[in-house]
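All the exercises in this workshop are built on plain-text protein records. A learned vocabulary of local backbone shapes supplies the integers on the structure line. Once this layout is familiar, the rest of the handout is easier to follow. An example says more than a description, so a record of this kind follows:
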Amino acid sequence: MLAVLSAGIAPTFALMAFFYLKDRFTEPITLILKTFIFGALLVFPIMFIQYAFTVESPGTSAFVQSFLYVGLIEEFFKWFIFLYIIYHHTEFDAHYDGIIYAVSISLGFATVENLLYLLTNGIEYAFTRALFPVSSHALFGVIMGYHFGKAKVKSRYKKWNIALALVFPFILHSSYNYILETVTSDWLTLLIPFMIILWIVGLHRIKAANQPIINNIDHKRKMRA
């Protein structure tokens, strides 16, 4: 049990530390923990809704399973929690803050989901779960948070960016699951390139969200000189 808990939680700490240390001005740990807990609690109502859909509509296509039952439901609830708890919070005052809090919500969800999977199927899946499902949830959070942050700091296209904070993670998450649902053999040949592209996009979003802060710091240094 302890080994499963350690294996299930370790990738979360590693990923959260990575994204947290990218922040030029660190956010309150208590608020990050709060968003993480809310993300974790989302697993249970989402599991119930997904189970209800599956029972009521057995034999649905892989497309419906991936895009409606998984991608849309999971990303909508994460998006809603961010909008309800974080978006109007006084601590959310910089572009990169959106990434921190969205990743925290996503990793809260991913951690509980991962632990339940490992407890059911065994610790031997811990490595692949860390590389793919847990990492992908974090990167969906990066993209969601990037657009929430952009909506927060820029008045132009505010509603559009709030909408994109849901649309892009939904499409990416659904596509990820669709690959797993439809490719029965050699699924890694599709999923590995998908994850590489997802990491490239995520890292680009991180750099873009931090850029205004970097420019301001450089400007202040020049003024001091």
